[in-house]
User: Fold these one by one.
Assistant:
Number 1:
Amino acid sequence: MEKLNKNSKFNLVFKYALKDLSRNYRKISSIIVTLFISLFILSAIFTIEDSLTKELNDNAKVLLGGDLEIDYNRNQGDLNLVNKVKEFSTVSQMIEFSTMLSTVDRTKNKSLFTRIKTVDEKYPLYGNVIYEPKGAFERMQKEPNTILINESLSKTLKIKINEKVKVQDQSFTVIGIIKSVPDVSGFVAFGDWALAGKQTLEILKLNGIGSFLNYEYKVKFYLNDDPNKIERKIENIFKDDEKVKLRYPENSASGLKRIINSFSQFLSLVSISAMLIAGIGIANTLLSFINQNNMSIAVRKAVGFYSGNIKTLYYLQLLILLFIITIISYASSFLIVPVADKYLSDGLGLNVYPKFSLVNYIKIFLVGLLVLIIFSIPTISSIDQVKASNLFRNVFQNLQFYYSKKSISLSIFLLSTLVLIFTFGSEKASYSLGYFGAFFICLIVFFLLSKIVIYLLKKFNFSSNIPLKVSIKNITQAKSITPITIMSLGLGVTLLLTLALVGTNFKREIARSIPDIAPDYFFVGIQKGEKEKFEKGIYKMDPNANIEIVPMVSSGIVKINGINPNTYIKPDNDSYWVIGSERRSSWVEAIPKDNPILKGNWWDLSKPNELQISLDAKVAKDFNIKLGDIFTLNIYGREIDGKVINFREVDYRDLSINFAMLFNPQFAENIPHEYLATAKFNDANKFDETLMLEVLPSLSMIKIADYLSKVTAVLNKVFIAVTLISAVTIVIGLIVISSAIMVQGKVKEYQNLVFKILGFSKKDIVYSSLIEFIIIFMSVILIATFFAVIGSKFIIENIFDLVWKFDFKVLIYLGFSVGLITLILIMITNLKYLNPKVYPLIRNQ
Amino acid sequence: MSTLLKLKKINLKYQTGKKSISVLKNIDLVIKKKETVSVVGESGSGKTSLIMLIGGLERPTSGKIIFNEKEITSLHEDEISEIRKKNIGIIFQSFYLIPNYTAVENVALTLELNEFKNPEKEAKILLDRFGLKHRFNNLPSQLSGGEQQRVAIARAIAMRPDLILADEPTGNLDTENSLLISSILFNYVKEEGSSLIMVTHDPKLADKAKRKIKIKDGKIK
């Protein structure tokens, strides 16, 4: 017998898939909505991440400020070597430093610790400085005592253009406001900063440590030169200079990239959770849709359609739907980019633009496809149960999820693929894997919980209260929506509560440290002869102020046991910052109160001529340092060997004076040094920063409260974004529940009709729905709280290394809010079934 | 007339729990090409089961069914679907039109499945022939019972099958519509030369067939 060829068979099935979809889209609207929301969130995350990564990669040279950067840190460097580079390329010199910037001629002047970048006329080598008014940047380079400030500084100190400000004892005119600078990778673009001409350096008193000086030379190669050759040439010039660090565009914003990757990894995991919850709803709605089409499927089988063709028809409909929804959700995600751009340009000084990426679209489509197939396999497989012979008997069995060995294996395979997609390539694969593990454990527990609830309620038959009996019957009846409600609500609530507990613990830890431990101010840049002057100045304003002054010296670790640590310690090491550049170190006689010794002994007084080092225990662990190891330190150009003799526990979060390395005072006292001080005032209002600057013009003051409020403001923004995204999982969960109720709609309507006939009042029906909800929600909230407590405790204690505390208030607020919203939704969805039309139902129409 | 269908020692049993119910017992039947046969009998006698077996919608417990000289009992489900698609049209008592397809689309479904060149055009010609020109684009819910059954007949015969199976085709219709449907059905069979096996409780309708088979307790009497 002649058979249809594969192509024409497919075309026919495709045509009918399109036709059916165009007629049935209303019936599967909840699939469309849940799929759209979850794919939109996923698309938004992928698009923003992609735009950011592209921005960082495409503008790597712009972000670095050149084809190569010669970084001398606190030293001016070897100008002879720099001049050699100038012979075959363009070199722009810039020096960054931190100092106080104050308003003048006001009744109450204000000061702010500001990062200032001095640039020459060649700056910027790549990209543009965005500023206003026109010509201000050029004026700044030519006219002495002029300065450009950034928008944040202008807002904080309320400085207007042409207003005078004071930097140390010099007066400057603010001639413009900067919106952005291109080379943000090595510069503090976040916070308060200013740009000044290179002549500024000559009129200010800057010191190496207190001013956080940084000398950089940005290099731009000539257009026709081979970049690789020039790079090798420059490396060769500096090969014997140990103080220099050469940086390249490819690792220009590695820190930023790590933050972006970690954050987008977390958001991707939340969004895939939303998709998996949506999958539960999709499976349910699809089953109801197939049940509605039971007769049409039987007719198709009767006229000669193969079962496989009919299944393909449904898979094709889902595929077409997915294709359209991914296009719409991907396109819509571009609308989020301007919002992200606003946050990112404020926070990081980066601008992102919507960029179409076919790879990204395919990734989103693939994720959607996997979720859709995983959850539709048991549903669409149920088509095999439909028999054309049912048409003769006029009896249609209610279809159930159908699992065969083959379909279970396929589902597990696809699920593993999905997990692997999100795990490999993510910043921390183990966290992703752990997250998925926790997600599926929660899913299984909530499924088991639904079975336990049903089992226990079936045993509960000693109440004579009719609404209670009806609600128990509704929960326990065959094909009830209890498992779906408990699973989708449970997962959503667990995620939301976990994130809320993480957020509140995090914020509490930050807020807690300000009044208890931290000083009010940090003071840097106190020179050797200024110590007394400083103390006098402080006590004059507040005689009861608590001052702590420690000596401070800058040193770099050149070798550890004779080997350059940069050759084997990678930048992703948590303690890389200790060897990354020169660090400040100090010395003390006695063991600091908040730095207990974990291993080794305090200073060996019998060896005053040897450098002894007390090291942060975490650094020791990260670098695998043993007691007795030798550090070769570069202190003011001299290489000195020191022995590590103890490990201290350093908690930088207490915001008091903490150093990774402490030296024995017997040896270190003779090293040229300056001082670092902290002050805690009886009344912080008594302290006037501007008056203090009159005593010590080059002093830098960092107000802890201001600094922390800035950090908290950024964190708040992050948590708002995270909470919004996690709330999406709740929204999807609610759609799943309401669609599950609607799936039961006909049965519910019929049941309500019977109740009506039997004399049941609307109040009784509503009352039974209420009891049904309370039973389900109470069981969900208890387990969700349990998981949220475990999850948030793990995250806070193991990932953030903070103290975790149970926040009952947050749980009550959130639990109550989610419960109320769910209840309202259930009531609204049930409302339309409260008034069943008697005639069509009793005539079986 | 040559043989179209041959049933050899057909038995059909259903298992309900531990009990086995024998629905058809040792049925031997031969249907010739262009022959019209009515199947009568009491409710539960096995009439519908018989045409379900002939249509390949159920498998017999034992015995052989040979259709167009090909044994179909041992074929794979997809192969039986292929035979049904091309050679067997089925008409049901409850019409079973696809609810969200128009009259034309319901008829075109079988034509498209059989790769007709202009399925919609062919469907319209057929519906016009059955007096449904004004109902081309109506959904089943907008049609009367008689109109729905005419569409269902058009769908069953659209691909000019060798065999038409009709299960109580007028069972849900009033007298006037019953007469109309039976005349349409028998006229078509006469004109196109298809065979017809029709299950009915209506003696007048049964008499219209050339041969009448009576089934009682699963056996042909």
Number 2:
Amino acid sequence: MWEQVRLALRESLHRAVFKVATLLPGVLALVVALLVSIFIGWILAAILRRILIALRFDARVERSGMANISDWSSAKTPTFLATRIVFWATVVAGLFVGIAALDASLSSGLSAYVVTYISKIVAAVVLLIIGTIIARFLSRSVLINGVNMNVQHARLLSLGVKWLVLVFTAAMVLDHLGIARSIVDLGFGILFGGIVLALALAVGLGSRDLVSRSLERDRHKTPADEDVVRHF
Amino acid sequence: MAEMETLQESKTESSEIVPTDLLIAISAPPSGDTIVPTVAKLEQACKLLSTPCRVVLALPAETAQEIPAPLPGMEPNLPVARALHFVNYPLPAPNPGAIPWLPNASTYRALCQLARKLNARACTVLGTDLGCNRDSLTAEKLTLLMDPAIEGTFDLAMPLYATQPLDDLLNKSILYPLTRTLYGHRVENPLGNELQISSKMFAPLSAGASQDSTRQQGRLPWLATVAANRNLKICQVRLGTRRPASSDGIDLSDALGQLAGPLFLDMEDNAAFWQRIRGSHEVPTFGAAETFTEPSDTVDVRRMVDAFQLGESNLRDIWSLILPPVTLLELKKLSRLSADEFHMEDALWARIVYDFALAHRLRNIHRAHLFGALTPLYLGWVASYAVEINKSGIAAQQRVEQLARTYESEKPYLLSRWRWPDRFHP
């Protein structure tokens, strides 16, 4: 009996060592593929940067009217954006090659699954970035316009808009990744519905005073600065 | 209508209309009741010209359709024999959302192209203020606006209006002092609607037509800048008092963006030129000085100070992306002052404008946000200016001159910030 146990253990150990030995070249290939792709990506990005600078790409993009798109992000130039896209595309391609090598050594459907999921992750990251940019843009718009309209709680409004967009983005990202989809749907529905209801109640209950104050202000309006000061 | 020719006709029958000495162009569609007296005045003005010359009046193409038979209707009002010839030109469509009375770069391009076709020596442009300033714009003043380039002494004649102390404040606070500091010419109305340009200006002003991009469409014609860049001669012509343009429905932030934005864009394009300019000099000015006879109104600045204080408490984070810490600290101190003692130093205001011009170039924040963030600061300066005018009784012109000199003395700050933007950055 002990002989059988020993044999089983030896076979198990043999299988494990065999698996690791099969996996190791794949892992090594993954690492090498990743390093090579980073190197190639860096070289390609550097070459592209030189070419775009020589072609005055930023100025051309600005003249073509596409500058409005870059306005949504901060101080990044179109050249910077293009070189980053090339760099990361090369790295992702290298990652795919590495995973394919790993998959061949594992002889399983991991590669197809990972590739599918990575594409989802990439889309989710893009969603997250766009959502964050839109949240920042809208929050600043609300804050600045609110201040210029003499809204005392402009900062609160801007914060509300920012978090509304961020929560909306987070729900979209999680839904896209398929993580706790039902919980996200339910939670987001409750949260969003709650916010809308709260706003409706706040406006409904608070607007009476607001309207009366506004009317009162108009009634007692004296010749104000805008009647005397002319900006142009 | 016999003498009215379309632009298309002028192409085919150019031999009939050359040589033209002076092209007078109405740069906005005039209403039916202003065109008749305007033409009468222009005919009178032509008679008063120091050098007799052939004058062509260019009217927007819409005018002929909108006004039923304008020329026969004018006949009874014309006190002198006809001295004008007429031509129509297609008025470019205004930019959607643009302030209606703002001079349009594409209009000037169209006019310069027409003037070149007609081989004109000069072009006098009469803008949208023609209707509301009908009484103040006499034939004698119009003559002043037709003579300089025809005599060959100047290449650009800009208008100089007499305004109330609390009128035209965007020009007084930003446009005039900034253009003067940048380009060294003391042209008080750099965006005036009535002006004259010589044939030397036609080529540079028509050049933008080929670069028809959104950047070009948003441009305003900074003629004084164009002239200064080419070392052309500039003068000013006093055109009397000017009624303020209508500001109904125009948001102040939008107006700031539409007026200061193109100037900031010009700063980017002409950086190599204006960085070499030091100080400024007077430009020759023609015509008798006029002042408003009625006393100026006093203004309650509390609302403007409130707007500034609200901005200071809410927009500090956004301002910190644009302004250095020292300026933020000064603004914080300023926000604690009451309306009566509110005073923004000219140097502080000049540095703020310079910092915003730099932020416009660096795109630290979205450009629409940039002018929104500038609005409370601008209102702060207006409040400070109004308090000073009310309290000290200082003449507005003197006060604006003082501000412009401060802009000039702060120019080294602009140069440092422009050349090494990261050095001061928070």
